[in-house]
Amino acid sequence: MTVVATTSSTTNKVLPHPLNAWYVAGWDHEVTRKPMSRRIANRPVALYRTEDGKAVALADACWHRLAPLSMGKTMEKDTIQCPYHGIVYNSAGRCVSMPAQETINPSATVPSFPVVERYRYVWIWMGDPTLADPDLVPDMHQMTSDEWAGDGLTIHAACNFQLVLDNLMDLTHEEFVHSSTIGQEELSESDFVTVREGNKVTVTRWMHNIDAPPFWLKNMRDKFPGFEGKVDRWQIINFEAPSTISIDVGVAKAGTGAPEGDRSQGVNGFVMNTITPETDRSSHYFWAFMRNYALDSQLITTQLRDGVHGVFGEDEEMLMAQQAAIDANPDYEFYNLNIDSGGMWVRRILESMLAAEGRLAASA
Amino acid sequence: MAATNIETWQSATVEQVVPVADGIARIVLEPSLPLKAEPGSHVDLMVEIDGEPVKRSYSVVESNHDGTRLVISVMKAPLSRGGSTFMHGLVPGQRLEITQPLQNFPLRVGARRYILLAGGIGITAIANMAAVLKRLKADYTLVYVGRSRSAMAYLAELSELHGERLEVHVDDEGSSLSVPALVGRADADTELYMCGPIRLMDAVRRTWVECELDLPNLRYETFGNSGWYDPEEFIVRVPKFDLEVTVPQGRSMLEALEDAGAEMMFDCRKGECGLCEVRITELSGAIDHRDVFYSERQQRLGTKMNCCVSRAVTSPTGSRSDAGAGPAVITIEPN
Ligand SMILES: Cc1cc2nc3c(=O)[nH]c(=O)nc-3n(C[C@H](O)[C@H](O)[C@H](O)COP(=O)(O)OP(=O)(O)OC[C@H]3O[C@@H](n4cnc5c(N)ncnc54)[C@H](O)[C@@H]3O)c2cc1C
Ligand code: FES
Ligand code: FES
Ligand SMILES: [Fe+2]
């Protein structure tokens, strides 16, 4: 209610995650007829597909003695059998067979979580299922658009999910963390604009008439063989709650009108990121790099994926070290700088979601 | 998953007690550790019967978004041991020990079609489900049956909220429910949630099975131990413990045996788990099986019973006019 109540985010080093939101549970190809287990928002979840191919997410603990259902096997239609004493559940989490008795105990259920498949991912809703509106799945349309090509991977990041969001909302770190690929000093020298609109935040940065860093020089030459010269470079970071960040990135030949909207003399990519809290101190970080040129080249898809994988490996190392330092220094607070404005809006938004769930006190 | 089956006890303040139908009181509670109540959830609370604390359960009819205000509604039970009478005597400001909402009867979001069936006071477990399905714009019908309008709580509010989706059947107006017609409207994509008198629920269940509908799509809440027969006093003999115990009308066989010092195995105490099973070696009278653990076939065999809920009765048919003279006598072998 009061303004005072929203200021705790500035000192919140380990932020809890909203539950009334869609998170990615896995890539579509990870969820198969063979059940898998993944911890999401602190809860172990069993993921599998029905005979009809629909993704299902059940709590990964049998109602009887809590054996993990993910060690069991999928049965006919939409069912899965507990590996221990054979209770069979359907996709709603309801027991359909109890081998050792003639009836079905009416209490025999495991929680079933709403899932939606979209943008190459299986999304899961861990909170109040009556609020699970598929229209709230964050926009990642480049993942399944004909105009974009690319691929990605998953990073298991040993840190609170908010630290990954902070990392992506402020790219001045590229100059220091990614100096050999995409970093350059103009990053921290150039101005940026932060705009918050409801549950979205945008941070826009343009660097005019600069040398292209190695990663971008290669991309320019893939499209414009033998390219030399200065470029205009952009980074437009788009956050959508709770934890999806798609970053519009690219360079164009300097002075050819890219800032005004003509990007034809450049190369454009989208770094698609969506972060799923695993525990309070670990995250599943799903990312992909999508481009809008050389769409049919698997060579370029693979080179870009491997290149970005290397860059993100540098972030992963930093994030892990940062989380360890946070935990080792419980009596030190964060200090927030001007460059953190994007990340600070993200914290505000997440905090208002937590407040709506009545879970803000837990974060204090 | 906010609500669970783990009991977290807290205190609650009674804010309001008002009558909402013949013999039914609406009770508004303010819990000290609020938690939002999911549709289908209930609270356990401690009532006082003859100065002793005893546990009773009540469905949450309504809760606000953060659970700081929980509404329950209590019917004065005929042949009551006193729990519902205690609840009717509550006054604003009084404190109660209650649990956070518990969930045995979850509503699944996402079914193609829903039928909700409430009989009498069973509306308490169903009302919140109907409200949520309305908010989700789901395809649902709310069927509410009762003996007479004056005994049916929340009729006006429900008809205001649900309009044509509410279907009312009233015995004393001659518009009683036809169970086959109701179940006939269900298909493989329909989930039916019900709470009401055991005879109504048994009829629905039987028809459901006859129609070859999937049993997991039939969900129900039993308000505990209402049987086909009125409870009677009976005698239980346990040769193994050299015991002969009279089970009074107001106690279960399990309780009576425990009172007499027998160490019995049990867990759920509501006829679900089958752990309190005893073998029947001799019987004069009939068994009123009140559990959901045995199949009908097993109940008919009459060789075992779940003593936490099931009772012995004199009448072989269940009708009072057939009641035998003396108390029923049963001899058992416990596990
Ligand atoms: C999950 C759940 C939700 C419930 N929700 C509600 C609700 O919303 N509103 C509501 O009014 N009630 C509800 N109940 C029922 C409630 O908990 C009490 O059982 C009810 O108020 C009667 O309590 P009592 O002590 O007055 O009567 P009891 O003494 O328990 O008597 C109630 C009935 O049980 C029978 N009975 C009496 N003695 C015995 C015995 N020894 N063994 C078996 N049966 C006996 C009698 O025939 C009598 O009609 C719910 C029960 C459960 C389990
Ligand atoms: S633990 Fe799953 S059936 Fe026993
Ligand atoms: S104790 Fe569970 S059925 Fe009796
Ligand atoms: Fe980075």
Tell me briefly what this model is.
Chain A has six helices and 18 strands. Chain A has 364 residues and is an alpha+beta fold. In chain A, the strands form four sheets. In chain A, strands 12-18-17-16-15-14-13 form a seven-stranded antiparallel sheet. A four-stranded antiparallel sheet of chain A has the order 2-3-4-9, with no helix packed on it. Chain A has a four-stranded antiparallel sheet with strand order 5-6-7-8, with no helix packed on it.
Topology:
The complex is a heterodimer of chains A (364) and B (335).
Chain A: E1 22-27, E2 36-40, E3 43-49, E4 55-59, E5 73-74, E6 80-81, E7 88-89, E8 95-97, E9 112-113, E10 115-118, E11 121-125, E12 149-157, H1 161-169, H2 174-177, H3 186-189, E13 192-197, E14 200-211, H4 214-223, E15 230-240, E16 244-253, E17 266-279, E18 282-291, H5 298-328, H6 341-356
Antiparallel strand pairs in A: 1-11, 2-3, 3-4, 4-9, 5-6, 6-7, 7-8, 10-11, 12-18, 13-14, 14-15, 15-16, 16-17, 17-18
Chain B: E1 9-21, E2 24-31, E3 41-49, E4 52-59, E5 62-63, E6 70-75, H1 83-88, E7 95-99, E8 102-103, E9 113-119, H2 123-135, E10 140-146, H3 155-162, E11 166-170, H4 179-184, E12 190-195, H5 198-210, E13 218-221, E14 234-238, E15 243-247, H6 253-259, E16 277-284, E17 286-288, H7 296-301, E18 304-306, E19 311-313, E20 328-333
Parallel strand pairs in B: 9-10, 9-12, 10-11, 12-13, 14-20
Antiparallel strand pairs in B: 1-2, 1-7, 2-6, 3-4, 3-8, 5-6, 14-15, 16-18, 16-20, 17-19
Bound molecules: flavin-adenine dinucleotide, FE2/S2 (inorganic) cluster (2 copies) and fe (ii) ion (FE2).
Flavin-adenine dinucleotide (FAD) binds at residues 42, 56-59, 72-75, 77-84, 121, 124, 221, 223-226, 230-231, 249-252 of chain B.
